[in-house]
Specification:
Elements: E1 2-6, E2 11-16, E3 24-29, E4 37-42, E5 46-52, E6 59-67
Antiparallel strand pairs: 1-2, 3-4, 4-5, 5-6
Length: 77
């Protein structure tokens, strides 16, 4: 599960199932995408790429799934 928080209100703005089969270690917005594209990495060795709709901030689709043979613990974007 990935959750995005509004730190000013203390409320979750968005939560969605990441599609990972193990713990998500990191989620980051891709640079220069106006916070519409996010990547996640997890203990299952996969990297998932998500696109969001700007008008209602809903998950559109998982467009990339890359299987790595080791645990991925951070993303350098």
């Amino acid at each position: 599960m990935v959750m995005l928080w509004d730190w000013e209100t203390g409320l979750a703005k968005l939560s969605f199932h990441s599609g990972h089969s193990n713990n998500v270690f990191q989620a980051k917005f891709m640079p220069y995408t106006d916070e519409r594209t996010m990547v996640t990495c997890a203990a299952d060795g996969e990297v998932h790429l998500f696109h969001f709709l700007a008008h209602n901030f809903q998950l559109v689709d998982v467009v990339l799934s890359y299987m790595h043979q080791r645990k991925l613990v951070f993303l350098n974007l």
